[in-house]
Specification:
By secondary structure, the chain is mainly α. The chain has helices at 2-9, 19-26, 36-57, 61-70, 74-85, 89-116, 127-130, 137-155, 163-169, 173-184, 188-215, 230-272, 303-308, and strands at 278-285, 288-295, 318-325.
Length: 340
C-alpha cells in the first residue's frame, strides 16, 4: 500500500528528492556540515523573532506574516521526523535541543522587546494575541495538513516553490512571541495558551513529516535497529495524546462559550427592543459576560432580560453593562484668558 502510494505521489520515484539532499536541507548540525547552516538558521531565527514581536506589539497582521515567511523553525521540527524514520537517535536529540533552545530564545526576545519598546499592549484587544491563545482541534488539523505539505514539498524535487506558503500557513514563531509579550505583561494564562498552540503545531508537524518521509521511502535507508528510536516515538505519541486531550477540552469550551454568547445577545436584544438602546457586543468575562450597549436615557427593567435568559443549571454567570452614550455635544470654545 505504502509503495503504491509512493508511486502515485512521487511519480514512481522519479520526483523523489534524494535522501542526502533532504538531510542537507533539514539537519543543521552534522559532522560534515560545518557551522554555516547553523549560523544561517540563527540569523533568520533572530530576525523573525524581532519581526514577529514587533508585529504583535503593534497588532500588525502583515508584519506577523512577514515573520512567518522568514522563520526557519520548521527546519529542525521536520528534521526530528526525518531522524526518527531513518533511525538517527543522535540527530533526533540534536534537532530536539535546537528546537528547545530556539523556543527559549524567541520567548526571551519577546520579553525583552516588550519591556524595552514604548508600546502599550492590551492582551484582551490585540488581535495578534487573542487569535493565538485559545488553540483547538481545528488548529491541530491545520498543523497536520501543513506538516504533510511541508514534508511533501521537501521530499518531492519539483515543489520547492510551495515552501513559502507552508511557512505562512503554520504558526511557529508568532505564538512564541506572544508568549514573551504576555509574560512581560503578566498574562500567564495567555502565555500558556500561545505555548500550547506552538507545541500542538510542533508535534503535529513532526508526526505528519515522518509519515510523508516514510511514504517517500526514506525509512529504507535505516541500517540500525528501530528499537533505538523507540523512545522518541513514544515521547511524540505521548505528547500527541496529551495535546489532543487539552485541545479537545479547549474546543468544547470554545463551542460552549460561543453558544452562551449567542444566548446572552438574544436575551439582551429582546430586553432592549422597545428602548432607545441597542446591543453592540457581548464579550466573555472571567465570571460571566459584559454586554455593551449604545443609546441614551434610562435602561429598561432587567426582568425582561432574565426572563428570556435560561441559565445552565451548573453555571450562574454574572452580567455587566457597558453603556456607550450616543449623544452628540458641541465642543465648547476654550476659556478666555485674561492678560495682565
Amino acid at each position: 500500500m505504502a509503495s503504491r502510494l509512493s508511486d502515485v505521489l512521487f511519480d514512481g520515484g522519479n520526483k523523489t528528492t534524494p535522501l542526502d539532499g533532504v538531510c542537507e536541507q533539514l539537519f543543521l548540525v552534522t559532522k560534515d556540515s560545518g557551522i554555516d547552516r547553523f549560523v544561517r538558521y540563527a540569523v533568520l531565527l533572530t530576525l523573525s523573532a524581532v519581526i514577529a514581536t514587533g508585529g504583535v506589539l503593534v497588532d500588525s497582521t502583515a508584519t506577523v506574516i512577514g515573520a512567518m515567511i522568514v522563520a526557519p523553525l520548521a527546519t529542525p521540527i521536520l528534521a526530528v521526523g526525518l531522524a526518527i524514520i531513518t533511525v538517527r537517535p543522535r540527530q533526533v536529540a540534536t534537532s530536539g535541543l535546537i528546537i528547545v533552545a530556539s523556543v527559549a530564545f524567541v520567548i526571551l526576545v519577546g520579553v525583552v522587546l516588550s519591556a524595552v519598546l514604548p508600546a502599550a499592549v492590551n492582551l484582551d484587544q490585540n488581535s495578534q494575541i487573542t487569535g493565538r491563545i485559545s488553540p483547538n482541534l481545528i488548529d491541530l488539523l491545520i498543523a497536520v495538513a501543513t506538516g504533510l505539505v511541508g514534508g511533501f514539498a521537501i521530499s518531492r524535487s519539483d515543489l520547492a516553490g510551495v515552501l513559502p506558503g507552508v511557512a505562512i500557513a503554520i504558526s511557529l514563531v508568532p505564538p512564541l512571541s506572544v508568549v514573551g509579550v504576555a509574560l512581560s505583561a503578566g498574562g500567564f494564562s495567555q502565555a500558556f495558551g500561545a505555548l500550547l498552540l506552538f507545541l500542538s503545531n510542533t508535534v503535529a508537524m513532526i508526526g505528519a513529516g515522518a509519515l510523508v518521509f516514510t511514504i517517500a521511502g526514506y525509512n529504507a535507508a535505516a541500517r540500525r535497529s528501530r528499537s533505538e528510536v523507540r523512545r522518541p516515538i513514544i515521547i511524540v505519541a505521548g505528547l500527541t495524546l496529551v495535546l489532543v486531550s487539552f485541545l479537545a477540552v479547549t474546543s468544547a469550551q470554545t463551542v460552549a462559550q460561543a453558544i452562551e454568547v449567542t444566548r446572552v445577545e438574544v436575551s439582551a436584544t429582546k430586553w432592549l427592543q422597545d428602548s432607545k438602546y441597542a446591543v453592540t457586543s457581548v464579550t466573555p468575562a472571567p465570571d460571566g459576560f459584559v454586554i455593551t450597549v449604545i443609546g441614551d436615557g434610562p435602561l429598561p427593567d432587567t426582568a425582561v432580560f432574565f426572563d428570556n435568559f435560561n441559565q445552565v443549571l451548573w453555571y450562574t454567570p454574572t452580567f455587566q453593562i457597558r453603556v456607550i452614550t450616543g449623544s452628540v455635544e458641541p465642543l465648547p470654545p476654550p476659556a478666555a484668558t485674561t492678560s495682565n
